Amino acid sequence: MKSFSLTILLLIGFALQQVIASPIEEGKKTFTSRCASCHKVDKDFAGPALAGIYDRKSMDWIKKFVHSSQTLIKSGDTAAIAIFEKFKKFPMPDHKDLTDADIENIMAYIKDETGKLQPTSAPQSPATGVATDNPFSFKQNPGLMTSILLALAFLIGVIYFALKVKKYEPVTDEDY
Ligand code: HEC
Question: Does 120 have pLDDT greater than 70?
Answer without folding.
Answer: no
